[in-house]
Design brief:
heterodimer, A: alpha/beta, eight-stranded mixed β-sheet, B: alpha/beta, 8 strands
Chain lengths: 375, 214
């Protein structure tokens, strides 16, 4: 096996899309930057392009490593690379930071050319459909008329779904992992608590904290801690942390005592250093708004009528944030439309985060599906 | 593990595939329950240009289907076919799986809900070699029933006669029966001489959602 192979040193690239983007919200962006990475080679007939869409906190750096940062391995490096399930010897893989993100594509922290100040609160809310529009612009820039596959987990899976609806001719396969055709009330509720943590942070300044040289760090930290709990399973937390105490005994105070507290606070701190709060707010809203059936009176089957791609839908047994039931909703609608679809429910202990894990069976499934995609 | 044999070899190796294929109209839509590695669906694709999906609960089988390029839905047949719409398929096949199922009546009714016709195959417990082993005082162990009583997944074995009575109970009207011994079709004393039984059936009382017959 070549599974340890990496795409090696990668360099992000930029494109400026100098074309107005009319957003679902009604706002218009006159132009925007996208940062992206590519791995592998686009073949002569340009039939082997594969788009990886990222989830809430992901970005364009899917695989490989940056020359100057030894710990900068891409977020899906276990999945994407030469000889890996998404094989860069076969596919020309594109990763892009979504519009509104904070890793190089235009987002709330970017300078608004009309004011020369960060957009902040003036950055419009974007939707999954808007992202698909921007991704088509990137595809055009790269000379890709049709993707062999669009692949994503969680919010990334939603983008893969949306591609098959908005551009059925431009995507041959969609791999939709740990996703949903819409969020449940419970799922939106978690997002709103996360947002409230940010919005009520006194350093938020209505979204214009850049001008005050500060960030709503406590809010973002809390948001991430909450999110993190929902991405893990009860079982995985019990196994990893249990009731372990850092100092072996109670200290009868509010400092870190249990290992799980230590872990969550660490995760929250780390995240609040790296991520922009406005981007986090915007991404959670994109999740909440996603509901392709909405325009069809809630009829997901009707929404999928236009889809032509083949589908691989995967879910994980212990994922309670994007439960297998939500994936089965997608599968049911696809079946009713006589669309080629395969569905697997992967036994995994790691909850929603399973989609990022290096699980042998999960990877074998993706590999098997990818091997049968003709390019 | 994964069968990549050509269809003609598959027919020689699996006469049961050929028997089922002979009942399938070209270009029909098929659901194969307990599809294993997808070999039957692959065979039917090649022979009858069908479009279809397999259903299986087992991880290894689901993976094999993906390797074989067969649409597969991982699901537990015992919980029914709630993921599938009424009248969605021309044929629903249950190939040598019924005898291992707990909820036998439910699955037959579900087959007739989602499909216009059902096709079931099972090892005939009334086959004379099985009877002989029972007369000699032992549970049968054979090529078609390769397990011992203590490790067999086959909890609902039956004879041709048993199944035909059962169909009545499930409101299934039998359209066609084929009884096989290896690759030979058995017409004489089928319940005694036949090793594998195949039935094609439809709903007895066409339910209201179907168009009434005149």
């Amino acid at each position: 096996m070549q599974d340890s192979n990496s795409v090696g040193i990668v360099t992000p690239q930029f494109v400026h899309i100098d074309k107005p983007l009319e957003l679902k919200s009604g706002s218009t962006l006159s132009g925007y930057h996208l940062v992206y990475e590519t791995y592998g080679r686009l073949n002569a007939d340009r039939s082997n392009a594969l788009l990886v869409c990222h989830a809430l906190s992901g970005n364009h750096h899917v695989a490989g490593i940056y020359a100057d940062k030894p710990k900068s391995t891409g977020w899906w490096d276990n999945m994407v690379g030469p000889g890996k399930p998404i094989d860069t010897d076969k596919f020309f893989v594109v990763g892009v930071n979504n519009l509104g993100g904070c890793h190089g594509s235009t987002g709330p922290a970017s300078l608004d050319p009309s004011t020369n100040h960060p957009y902040g609160a003036r950055f419009p809310l974007v939707t999954v459909e808007d992202w698909v529009e921007t991704q088509t612009q990137l595809a055009e820039h790269l000379g890709i008329a049709q993707f062999a596959a669009v692949v994503g987990g969680s919010l990334g899976g939603m983008q893969a779904l949306q591609w098959t609806l908005n551009y059925p001719e431009k995507v041959r396969h969609a791999v939709v992992i740990a996703a949903a055709a819409k969020l449940t009330a419970q799922n939106i509720a978690f997002n709103d608590v996360a947002r409230q943590a940010i919005l009520t942070d006194q350093d938020f300044y209505g979204g214009d904290y850049y001008a005050y040289n500060t960030v709503p760090r406590r809010g973002l930290r809390l948001a991430r801690m909450l999110g993190h709990i929902t991405y893990l399973s009860d079982h995985s937390m019990a196994t990893k942390f249990g009731r372990d105490l850092r100092d072996g005994k109670f200290s009868f105070g509010y400092d870190v005592e249990f290992e799980i507290e230590s872990y969550l606070r660490y995760q929250g701190d780390k995240f609040s250093d790296l991520f922009d709060a406005n981007s986090y707010l915007l991404m959670t809203k994109a999740l909440d708004y996603f509901d392709p059936a909405h325009a069809y009176n809630g009829d997901l089957t009707a929404a999928f009528k236009v889809a032509k791609a083949g589908f691989l839908v995967l879910s994980f047994t212990t994922d309670w944030r994007f439960s297998p039931e939500r994936s089965r909703d997608i599968v049911k609608a696809l079946l009713k439309n006589n669309i080629s679809v395969s569905y697997a429910e992967i036994t995994s202990a790691h909850g929603h985060d399973s989609f990022l894990m290096n699980d042998a069976y999960y990877h074998q499934l993706v590999r098997a599906y990818m091997n049968n995609i003709e390019v | 593990m994964v069968t990549t044999t050509s269809s003609s070899t598959a027919a020689a190796l699996r006469p049961d595939f050929a028997a089922i294929a002979s009942w399938i109209k070209a270009d029909s839509k098929i659901l194969d329950l307990g599809c294993g590695d997808g070999a039957l669906l692959k065979y039917l694709q090649q022979e009858r240009h069908i479009f279809g999906y397999g259903v299986d609960i087992d991880d290894e089988n689901v993976l094999s289907c993906l390797k074989n390029g067969i649409n597969v839905i991982q699901s537990d047949l015992e919980t029914g076919l709630s993921g599938f719409a009424d009248d969605a398929f021309d044929y629903v096949i249950l190939s040598q799986t019924l005898q291992a199922m707990r909820h036998t009546e439910r699955i037959i009714r579900e087959m007739l809900r989602v499909g216009r016709e059902g096709i079931v195959s099972f090892p005939n417990f009334g086959y004379w070699k099985n009877r002989l082993q029972v007369i000699r005082g032992h549970m049968p162990v054979s090529e078609a029933l390769p397990y011992h009583w203590y490790d067999t997944p086959n909890i609902h074995l039956c004879t041709l006669g048993d199944f035909e009575n059962f169909c009545q109970q499930c409101d299934a009207r039998i359209l066609e029966r084929r009884v096989m011994q290896q690759d030979r079709q058995i017409r004489f004393l089928p319940n005694l001489m036949g090793k594998l039984a195949f039935y094609r059936f439809e709903r007895q009382n066409k339910s209201p959602r179907l168009e009434p017959r005149d």
